[in-house]
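Supplementary Note 3. Input sequence used for the single-chain structure prediction.
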Amino acid sequence: MNSVTVALLSIVWLAVAYQVYGRVIARKLIKPDDSRPTPAHRMNDGVDYYPAQPLVLFGHHFASIAGAGPIIGPVMAAAAFGWGPSALWILIGVVLIGAVHDYTTLMVSVRHDSASIPEITQSVVGKSARFLFLVFVWITLIFVIAVFAIAAAKSFVADPRIVIPAFGLIPLAILFSVLVHRLGLPIWIGTLAALGLLILLFKAGMDIPVILPFERDMALQIWIGVLMLYSLVAAVLPVWILLQPRDYLAYWILAAGMAVGFTGLFLTHRPIVAPFAIGWVSKTQGPMWPMLFILIACGAISGFHSLVSSGTTAKQLDRESHGRPVAFGAMIAEGALAMLALLAVTAGLSFSQADPGSALATPSLQEFLGKNGGGPIAAFATGFGVFTEPLLGAAGALFGMTMLNAFVLTTLDTSVRLARFITSELAGSVVGPLKNRHVSAFLVVIVAYGLASSGSEQALWPMFGAANQLVAALAMIVVTAYFSQKGKSRGYTLVPAIFMLLTTCGALIWKGYAELTADVPNYALIIAAIVLLGLAVYVGLSGFKAIKRFGNS
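The predicted structure, written as discrete structure tokens, is reproduced below.
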């Protein structure tokens, strides 16, 4: 099938879904009221609570939830199960589950003074469920930080030209913020100037690649350490200094990248060379159900998004009516990014090393995902470069990788900031120093570095996916309990919650069994699977009891 046909159908479906289903959810469940002051105004502290313009907040939210997730998942799923099942899950999941999850968790948080979803669990489910949910979320965030740090480090080693533009965005964002927030420069002038300087950073990266003078494994460890140090500093700064402006500028990079990527796809008309479906059971990932729905998390449904919605976005929402374009809209856009990634590696690359030489001959997806390959981000960047060659020439792959790494950095420091919040909520009342944002952030970074320095994203991604999807399921159980408490319809969130809970529990059972029967069992992952499964069952059952109780009252 031609990739253009798939892309056009996907874009039309996502656009219609935003306008139609997004309005249904707003009308049936949320009923936004702009006369009600949001926490960003009522609790403005200039650090975490700070009202943002809707486009700036959309940029922050989109940059924070996107990261490498909608790239890594579809790339790995395409190699394991084929492009057809992967595309169907992205397009159906993002509308009926993912966007609903993001929008409802944001607005329920806003109605609770921007408390995190785990914190809200106490008022609608129970105290013990709240504690266990916080533990669950903390573990998930550690996985997020570790996996994305590894992915970014591997991309820096694979293409040293991206280092300068990726890190150069940080001081540029701070300068942009000072000019706009403190000196009153109109935002459109600041945006144009910043994007112009980004082009210069991109050119500098091409001319001055940053190559560490060490062998590959040592270089990876150093880059992981640098990324963790950056995340530690960024996670404790006031949001207006770095978080808001950096995410906003990174959004424009991704928006430009998606526009160029889809335009290049329409110009090149490359056919999809990967099989529609490979089989019900993958040799590397296991059965299609539940593992496909775990590999593709971001881009379809991701529990991490509920942590962003209730952790940072809810503290910056200026008006309730901005919630739908910011949260529902950003998730729909992420679905489009996931489809671009899927097409980049199934039409922009060859599928196996056995492909005959032809005009379509390119490095294969399997080569990138092999032990010594550049990983999913490098695979996407290469396929993206093939699509965009008519527009960007030889710089297409570099632009694709730079675009993705800018978002990995946003996800890393947002995740550390969220884990800092969760650490304080979880243990701050018992261990006094953990109330301090510097201490709690340091603890998070140390634990995440230990996990990242000892593994790879190929091993950690399925565990991250399972934990991440369980957070989504539990978050939807909590918001369903809230809507039941308010006498509103439950089906829009309850049915997706049940599906995701069953799917992710199944995935944890499968991964635990697979690791236990492996030639070299990974006992750390086995223990993690058991712990997460136990937490999920307890919190899930407690949530369903609360939903039933409210429904009968």
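The CA atoms of residues 371 and 495 lie 39 Å apart. The two ends are 53 Å apart (CA to CA).
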